[in-house]
Write a structure and sequence with these properties.
Blueprint: E1 8-10, H1 20-24, E2 27-31, E3 34-36, E4 39-43, E5 48-57, E6 63-69, E7 72-76
Antiparallel strand pairs: 1-4, 2-3, 2-7, 4-5, 5-6
Amino acid sequence: MTETLPDRLATDPRSPFHDAELLSRGIGIRFNGAEKTNVEEYCVSEGWVRVAVGKTLDRKGNPMTIKLKGTVEPFFKEG
């Protein structure tokens, strides 16, 4: 297994950036120095995360998200 995380990763299985095996290892995201637990997708090189907005769903039943720009630091969770 690789110890480096991809530049872009998504939790949605329909996304081309989804990697179930990597997500099962446990990945955390630090965004602007604070750990976020509601990240749906991230991109390190472009400096953004897509986070869920409460429990709101779109008309297809997917969580509503917003894109936030800043410093993104993915890491493997210990344990």
